[in-house]
Every structure is written in structure tokens, then in C-alpha cells.
């Protein structure tokens, strides 16, 4: 398969596909990644403990029977592990510390190696939270955001891994973005309910940050549920321990979908109540009572402004055509997965493939968000 099939980027880093190996303490080292995740777009190694306090906590965790990475030279370990991953996937390192200085040094190592640094604000082991790291960082957002700012001064691409439904998630995400984080790695955990798909959608609607989603990704249907709510990437953890071929299978299936459809994480329709803001690319002309009015209001559009924005984009593209469709232009037509003989007839006449149509719709979604009167919280 082509390494540029997806065109997924964060800054100057490109991922060959949207499937990642998630970090698991004491498990996800370079050997594990090379064996289980050779086809992934991203492998996240770690978590690695950088200072004396987290190393002591890791030893205590190991003493009670859990796995953790232990090292007297964590920065050297990180450098060696990054370099030991076979070519193909992008590499990230998930790290913990009770002070910012070791994180900055780890960022320099990652930057030099062309890797991503990921702050662990996710671990909920008591030994870690008692010393103020892992999930405990979510209770001190000023400190976490200050750390992000200092780490970003190194120029590293920075991810922050967090657990959902611990604090106000929308406020959390917007503060992380404003502080300079590049990637949100979201464990979309909802106690007793698997992945919180509604929360993924709500977070997608609150940020333009790159989102990796995690939790209970054990098959392609679970991955697609997250993609259709706005995840750019999904990460796999425990599922890999139970199914050696899981990542390869997910890569193959999502790649086939991308080749056929062209927009692997296309949103659901807004009128169904499940589509995020990107779904406005598929909405009809707002001429009758419909959920679209409430959605465009979130972006500060009135009906006429929304219509003008879509038609402005369509001008000079294939979406401008379609006199025989419901509203006289493909710009108002729905997702390719929804059967429509009028739309499909125009596409056939124009010689536009399903993937070309969906790629235009993806560009349209970006155009709508970029020109909103109330823009989604974004770094410009």
C-alpha cells in the first residue's frame, strides 16, 4: 500500500496511516513495537519514568506485580529505544516526571531523533498520582500548561495523553491547545460503558488539534465509530496483547476504505444528531426547519451566510455542478455512503469518482470551519 494514501500530518511529521500502538507501562518497547506494530502509522513507546520520584514510584508498582519500565539512565534508554524501532511508523515516547526539567531534556532527545514526545497525564496508579504526575496533572492545569509551553520551546512535536471524564474535558482540551500542544491522545473512557463516542464528537467540535482516540479498539467497527466522530487516528493497547495481527488488520481495512471513499474519518450527517461540525459539508440548503440551523449558529453563521460560504467554495470546482440534484449543486449533496441516484448520476456524467467527491467535501468542511464567525478554538 502507498505511504501517502492518507496525507495525515502534524506539523512536519507525516503518518502513513491512522492506526497507532498505544503506550503500556513495561510492555511497549521497541521489540514489542517491531513485532506487533510493524504496519502502524505511529508507535508510542513507554511510559518512561524520567526523575527520581517517578522511578521510585515505578519500583513500588513493580513490587506489587504490575509491569513498568525501570532505568537508571532514562534519557539514554529513550534514545536507544527510538533508534531501535524498525523504519516505517513514526515513533513517540510517553514520559512521566514530577518536574519539567527532565521533560524538556527528553523533548530534546525526541526532537533530535525525529520523534514525538508525549506527556503522560493519564496514568492513574496511586504511586504516580500521589506524587503529582500521571492523571494528577489534570487537577493542576496551570502547571501542566506551563510545562507544555516550556517543552514546546525545544521545537518538539508534543502530544498529551489524558483520560476522559475526569475533569471538564472541553475546558481541558482548549487549555492544552492554547498552551501549544499539537496532539491530544484521548482515552475516551466512560466508566462501565466502553468508549464515550459523544464526548469524542463534542471535543472534535471544540478544537482543531490533532486527535488520537483510544479505548476498546478491538476491531474495525470500533475504530470507525471513533473516526466518524472526529478522531484523526486511533490507538490500540490491550487488544494487541489478545490479537497479534490486530494492527495489521486495522491498517488493511482502513486503507481499503480510504482507497474506495477518500475520506477515512468522514463525519456522520448533522441531521442525525451524531455528526460533528465537519458534517456541515454534507448538509442540504438551510431552507426549512432542520438541525443544521442550530449547528451553524455554533459557528456564528446565519442561513444566508452559510449558503454563501458553501457556494463560494464550490465555484470553480466539480461541486458547482449538478443542476439535476435537489438544490442544483453537488455542494449540497450528502455523504457518498448514503444512496442517491441524482447525485451519483451527476458524478458519473462528470467522471468524478467517489473518492474525488469525498476529498472535495473534506476540503469544503475545512473551508466552512476556517471561515466561521465564531471559529472553533484553533491555533491560527
TrEMBL record:
It comes from the Archaea. Residues 89-256 form the DUS-like FMN-binding domain. Pfam families: Dus. NCBIfam families: methan_mark_9. This is TIM-barrel protein, putative. The lineage of its organism: Archaea, Methanobacteriati, Methanobacteriota, Stenosarchaea group, Methanomicrobia.
Amino acid at each position: 500500500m502507498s505511504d501517502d494514501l492518507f496525507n495525515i500530518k502534524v506539523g512536519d511529521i507525516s503518518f502513513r496511516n491512522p492506526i497507532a500502538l498505544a503506550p503500556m507501562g513495561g510492555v511497549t518497547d521497541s521489540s514489542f513495537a517491531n513485532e506487533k506494530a510493524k504496519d502502524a502509522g505511529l508507535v508510542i513507546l513507554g511510559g518512561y519514568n524520567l526523575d527520581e520520584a517517578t522511578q521510585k514510584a515505578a519500583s513500588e508498582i513493580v513490587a506489587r506485580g504490575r509491569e513498568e519500565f525501570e532505568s537508571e539512565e532514562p534519557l539514554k534508554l529513550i534514545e536507544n529505544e527510538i533508534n531501535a524501532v524498525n523504519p516505517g511508523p513514526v515513533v513517540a515516547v510517553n514520559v512521566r516526571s514530577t518536574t519539567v526539567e527532565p521533560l524538556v531534556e527528553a523533548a530534546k532527545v525526541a526532537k533530535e531523533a525525529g520523534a514525538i514526545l508525549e506527556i503522560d497525564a493519564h496514568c492513574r496508579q496511586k504511586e504516580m498520582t500521589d506524587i503529582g504526575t500521571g492523571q494528577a496533572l489534570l487537577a493542576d492545569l496551570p502547571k501542566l500548561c506551563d510545562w507544555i509551553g516550556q517543552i514546546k520551546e525545544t521545537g518538539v512535536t508534543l502530544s498529551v495523553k489524558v483520560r476522559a471524564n475526569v475533569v471538564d474535558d472541553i475546558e481541558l482540551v482548549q487549555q492544552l491547545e492554547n498552551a501549544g500542544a499539537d496532539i491530544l491522545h484521548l482515552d475516551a473512557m466512560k466508566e462501565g460503558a466502553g468508549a464515550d463516542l459523544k464526548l469524542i464528537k463534542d471535543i472534535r467540535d471544540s478544537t482543531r488539534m490533532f486527535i488520537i482516540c483510544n479505548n476498546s479498539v478491538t476491531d474495525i467497527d470500533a475504530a470507525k465509530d471513533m473516526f466518524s466522530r472526529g478522531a484523526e487516528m486511533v490507538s490500540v493497547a490491550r487488544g494487541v496483547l489478545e490479537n497479534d495481527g490486530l494492527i495489521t488488520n486495522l491498517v488493511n481495512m482502513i486503507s481499503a476504505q480510504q482507497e474506495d471513499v477518500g475520506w477515512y474519518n468522514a463525519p456522520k450527517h448533522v441531521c442525525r444528531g451524531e455528526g460533528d461540525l465537519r458534517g456541515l459539508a454534507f448538509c442540504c440548503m438551510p431552507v426549512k426547519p432542520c438541525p443544521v440551523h442550530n449547528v451553524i449558529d455554533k459557528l456564528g453563521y446565519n442561513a444566508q451566510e452559510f449558503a454563501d460560504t458553501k457556494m463560494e467554495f464550490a465555484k470553480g470546482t466539480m461541486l458547482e455542478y449538478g443542476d439535476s440534484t435537489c438544490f442544483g449543486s453537488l455542494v449540497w449533496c450528502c455523504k457518498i455512503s448514503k444512496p442517491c441516484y441524482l447525485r451519483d448520476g451527476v458524478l458519473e456524467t462528470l467522471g468524478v469518482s467517489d473518492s474525488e467527491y469525498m476529498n472535495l467535501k473534506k476540503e469544503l468542511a475545512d473551508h466552512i470551519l476556517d471561515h466561521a464567525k465564531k471559529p472553533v478554538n484553533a491555533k491560527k
